[in-house]
Design a protein that fits this description.
5-stranded antiparallel beta sheet; 8 helices; 43% helix; alpha+beta
């Protein structure tokens, strides 16, 4: 019997180490003593082969997941920027050509009564309140002159750009006992809108808002961002005087779409 015939005989086996032909079913090689079970265990069995395949494919899955997350983050950033740059439409507010005159007249009468120690009540409607706020917003020419005078040693163009980063337009909408403030400001040469809606409060003679919702451009703001935006609008040195009321005010509230002030 030749070796080829023996290899095909199911009753015989060939040692994988020394090639010795022997009876099949023996636990070890008669020629070299190789233990067949140990030799087979050293090779990549089905379990080990599967684990190797999983380990080989894992880095590829992680790379693909990282790429997906990176593109999602980039897309989210682009969407956020687009929403911020897309200004919300301003609210429709009541407008009257005599509103400024009426507001100044009411304020003069209010101050006259408070100076005499008499209790007084000042009521401003939406048109009068907006006329009063608009009168306190400086024009572009005023901003340029103020910047040049306040910082004569600096480049005038740089000073003007610093001033222009402030509020450019404010519109206040009164609804029931709530107020909505629409603010337009410059951000690196781009006009950005800010909308804050909430309740009105009086602190140290100046109006403040407790916002409940708002938008930067068309992007809805989270609670923490809302508080920061309200603080930037009402408490910054550039804007604080725009919301300060005449002295002697003890309370301020919004009722029936009107701002009502009470003297001490």
């Amino acid at each position: 019997m030749n070796l080829a015939d023996c290899e095909t005989d199911p009753g015989t086996t060939v040692c994988p180490k020394c090639g010795f032909l022997q009876e099949a079913g023996r636990p070890e090689c008669t020629g070299c003593g190789l233990i067949f079970d140990r030799y087979r265990g050293a090779g990549p069995g089905p379990g080990r082969l599967e684990r190797r395949q999983i380990a080989a494919t894992r880095p590829g899955l992680l790379r693909r997941a990282y790429r997906i997350l990176r593109w999602c983050a980039l897309a989210g950033t682009l969407v956020t920027a687009a929403l911020i740059l897309r200004n919300s439409p301003p609210p429709v507010i009541e407008v009257s050509p005599e509103a400024d005159f009426r507001a100044e007249t009411k304020i003069a009468e209010f101050q006259s009564m408070t100076s005499k120690g008499a209790p007084a009540r000042l009521q401003l409607d939406e048109a009068e309140l907006n006329a009063l706020v608009q009168s306190r917003l400086p024009t572009t020419d005023q901003e340029e002159r103020s910047a040049a005078q306040a910082q004569p040693d600096q480049d005038a163009g740089q000073a003007v750009e610093q001033v222009r980063s402030n509020v450019r337009d404010i519109r206040l909408h009164l609804d029931g006992d709530s107020i909505a403030a629409y603010v337009l400001f410059d951000l690196h040469g781009k006009e950005i809108s800010l909308i804050l809606e909430g309740k009105l409060e009086l602190h140290d003679g100046c109006l403040r808002m407790v916002p409940v919702k708002g938008k930067l451009g068309s992007l809805p703001l989270m609670e923490g961002t809302l508080r920061g935006a309200a603080s930037r609008l009402f408490d910054s040195p550039e804007n604080r005087d725009k919301f300060c009321l005449p002295p002697g005010i003890r309370d301020a509230r919004i009722e029936g779409g009107n701002l009502i002030l009470f003297s001490r």
